[in-house]
From TrEMBL:
Keywords: Hydrolase, Protease. GO terms for biological process: proteolysis. It comes from Palleronia caenipelagi. PANTHER family: ATP-DEPENDENT PROTEASE LA (LON) DOMAIN PROTEIN (PTHR46732). Pfam families: LON_substr_bdg. This is ATP-dependent protease. It comes from the Bacteria. Residues 11-203 form the Lon N-terminal domain. One of its GO terms (molecular function) is peptidase activity. The keyword Nucleotide-binding does not apply. The keyword Cell membrane does not apply.
């Protein structure tokens, strides 16, 4: 078990639209831009090996901004291709709040952050007492059929509540702002309810809602 005091106050930031990492989730990434190749190399020199995934956003004057909340992941998997690209896996550790972006000579972005308010992320997997798994999986099957998506239904059926909701939140093809809403959900129950709403909205928007 780790606490916020064990985590660094400044971390490298990877702003990637639509890429969602959640606590205790796993995110595979394909790294090929020189600045992010440098970020991975520097990350592997640290004891924590943390990278902050965060959604970029455009400010009112068109400036490049970041959302206030992201999620840090520990680099747990790494391989290099023959042409110098990296294939990595991040294991979600905790969400964080951006305090300020730091200036420096690194080619990638770094932020001073706060872990306050996210102690739940560092604890045991969450439970969702009101989760109706049968109804949820029925909704999910309709959504996957409507969107022509494929998955391993046996694995989904057997997954624990948090793993199921986390994996679907990360993998479903929602808009970046929708992904941000899932990230900022304070509890697993809230995230599941948000996920259900997004699925229903997507089906209704496509004219493929078969739910009555």
């Amino acid at each position: 078990m780790i606490s916020a005091s064990d985590l660094p106050q400044t971390i490298p930031i990877f702003p990637l639209p639509g890429a969602l990492l959640l606590p205790r989730g796993r995110l595979p990434l394909h790294i090929f831009e020189p600045r992010y190749l440098a970020m991975i190399e520097d990350c592997m020199k640290t004891s924590e090996r943390l990278i902050g995934m965060i959604q970029p956003r455009t400010g009112p004057a068109g400036e490049d901004r970041l959302h206030a909340i992201g999620c840090a992941g520990r680099l747990t998997g790494f391989s290099e291709t023959e042409d110098g690209r990296y294939m990595i896996t991040l294991a979600g550790v905790s969400r964080f709040r951006v305090i300020e972006e730091e200036q420096g000579f690194a080619p990638y972005r770094r932020c001073r952050i706060s872990w306050d308010g996210f102690s739940r992320d560092l604890g045991q997997p969450e439970q969702d007492p009101g989760f109706d798994r049968t109804a949820f999986l029925d909704l999910l099957k309709r959504y996957f059929a409507a969107e022509e998506l494929r998955t391993d239904w046996d694995a989904l059926t057997e997954a624990e509540d948090e793993l199921l909701i986390t994996a679907l939140s990360m993998l479903c093809p929602f808009e970046p702002e929708d992904k941000q809403a899932l990230l900022e959900s304070p509890t697993l129950t809230t995230r599941r309810e948000t996920l259900e709403t997004l699925i229903r909205f997507a089906m209704a928007g496509d004219g493929k809602d078969r739910l009555q």
